[in-house]
Amino acid sequence: MKLGENIKMLRKQRNLSQEVLAEGLGVSFQTVSKWENEYTLPDVSLIPALASFFGVSIDELFDFNLFEKENQVKAICDEAYRYRCSNPEKSEQILRDGLKRFPGNDMILNNLLYTMEPETRADEMIAICKALIESTKDDEVKYDAYRILAFCYYKTEQTALVEHTLEMIPELYFTKLELAASLLDSEDSYKAAQKQKNISAETLVNMLIVIARRLKEKGEPEKAAVQLDIARKVIDAFQEDFLEEKLFHATIYESMDEKREEIEKQLKE
User: Fold this and answer.
1) Is 195 contained in some domain?
2) DSSP 199-261
3) What is the pLDDT tens value at each position of the chain, 269 positions in all?
4) Does residue 110 lie within any of the structural domains?
5) How many domains is the chain built from?
């Protein structure tokens, strides 16, 4: 792979514009464009800065196999995802083996967190989250690590740390998936909408359960029951939904077993 193609690939992987990269290096965006289109090459004095900006070694910046490495990491994470719910131990082992090949890889570590339970492994999860927050240059990984870190603190009753950690996460009223679903065309729009549908459904059910719990604490069980009934109806509404096998391993309805049990438990209390 040519250097210009490598620069372009690294920039796009991090969702950066040419302008942002140019500003970080003290050059014009036209210069970055020329690099990426192989019209010119970066001055040798900029090579260390480029490597540092992307968080890679100079060897990796020039590495012909860098793209293949990214594909291999993705394949490891995709394979582990297949077993995340049905066999988390197997999923974890796949990721552990992946870390032997790619030590410290932030995508593999991020996926590893999803195979653990904070009730029994909070200390290990907290350590991984802190390492990711400190080292990753991928905002998606960073803020997911903050989210999981806050959840671990919650499970270990470290209330003050929960609030502090949540303050590190920016408040957003839209998602990249929402925008992609609305603004892109054809298959890209469809995939984004499907992913956001699953996220939104799970979030809605979770929030209804939380509201019901707080209403009970306030001594308003009738209102709590209304919220739980809505949550149950939301789940049941997806009973006839089809599985998009290219994107998911279970439908929304199939993945909500624990939520249904929690709802029924709260309704009986």
Assistant:
1) yes
2) HHHHHHHHHHHHHHHHHHHTT-HHHHHHHHHHHHHHHHHTTTPPP-TTT-SS-TTGGGHHHHH
3) 578 888 888 888 788 899 999 999 999 989 999 998 888 989 988 999 998 998 888 877 887 566 677 889 999 999 999 898 889 999 999 999 999 888 888 999 999 999 999 999 999 999 999 999 988 888 889 999 999 999 999 999 999 999 999 999 998 888 899 999 999 989 999 999 999 999 999 999 999 999 999 999 999 999 999 999 999 999 999 999 999 988 888 899 999 999 999 999 999 88
4) yes
5) 3
What CA dihedral angle connects 40, 55, 67 and 85, to 10 degrees?
A: -150
The amino acid that residue 194 corresponds to is Q
- Residue 113 carries which side chain, given as an amino acid letter? L
What pTM did the predictor assign? 0.66
Q: How many beta carbons lie within 10 A of that of residue 15, not counting itself?
A: 11
d(CA 105, CA 9): 17
